[in-house]
Amino acid sequence: EVQLLDSGGGLVQPGGSLRLSCAASGFPFSSYAMGWVRQAPGKGLEWVSDISNSGGATYYGGSVKGRFTVSRDNSKNMLYLQMNSLRAEDTAVYYCATRSGGKPLDYWGQGTLVTVSS
Amino acid sequence: DIQMTQSPSTLSASVGDRVTITCRASQSIGTWLAWYQKKAEKAPQLLIYKASSLQSGVPSRFSGSGSGTEFTLTLSSLQPDDLATYYCQQYNSYPWTFGQGTKVEIK
């Protein structure tokens, strides 16, 4: 059974940093691309980032490019999102998700809440 | 960036009704389109990928169609459990983009 466990969210001041983690199990992690999506309170879904199965290719949405960095450790079945220079508008629930067999985001974590506020 | 526009933003229908949601892309995306269901306090669920392929485990009352710039999600017979917000997403090119969502209410 595919399981994704998001963690690392919390309260951070504007300009601060936070690293989200996603622990994966139940599937061949190193074979799957992975992604991050967020949902701000009362808003719609926003695609954040994508990383290839090897980690050699990464992609970002315009609102986070240059501030967020996605990475993975295939030896530990872990996905990460390093978030720097955080802004109030980054406040959201962040979800990690798998991309299997060329599909878009098919299995999702439960989400972790990031709140950026002073 | 490719803009995705859904209509309507909200719809109210009765149990058993046929419901259709439309998604338009600002440029051609072939069939690289997905539909997701988002319920309150739950993670999104993939319903349809490649415009018309039903994700494993998703009820057959959900179907998708379209190509190029116009796509539809159809619920053949609305059920109480379908209360949710539905999003289209293009994955033809980065950055991937979602529509603004369609909230489905049960009359």
Can you walk me through this structure?
The complex is a heterodimer of chains A (about 120) and B (about 110). In chain A, about 0% of the residues lie in helices and about 50% in strands. Chain A is built from no helices and ten strands. Chain A has strands at about 5, 10, 20-25, 35-40, 45-50, 60, 70-75, 80-85, 90-100, 110-115. Chain B is globular and about 35 Å long. Chain B has no helices and eleven strands. In chain B, strand 4 (about 35-40) and strand 5 (about 45-50) form a beta hairpin. Chain B has strands at about 5, 10-15, 20-25, 35-40, 45-50, 55, 60-65, 70-75, 85-90, 95-100, 100-105. The termini of chain B are far apart. In chain B, the strands form two sheets. In chain B, strands 2, 4, 5, 6, 9, 10 and 11 form a seven-stranded mixed beta sheet that branches. In chain B, strands 1-3-8-7 form a four-stranded antiparallel beta sheet, with no helix packed on it. The model of chain B has no long low-confidence stretch (mean pLDDT about 95). Chains A and B meet through strand 5 of A and strand 4, strand 5, strand 9 and strand 10 of B.
What structural keywords apply?
A: mainly beta; six-stranded mixed sheet; four-stranded antiparallel sheet; B: mainly beta
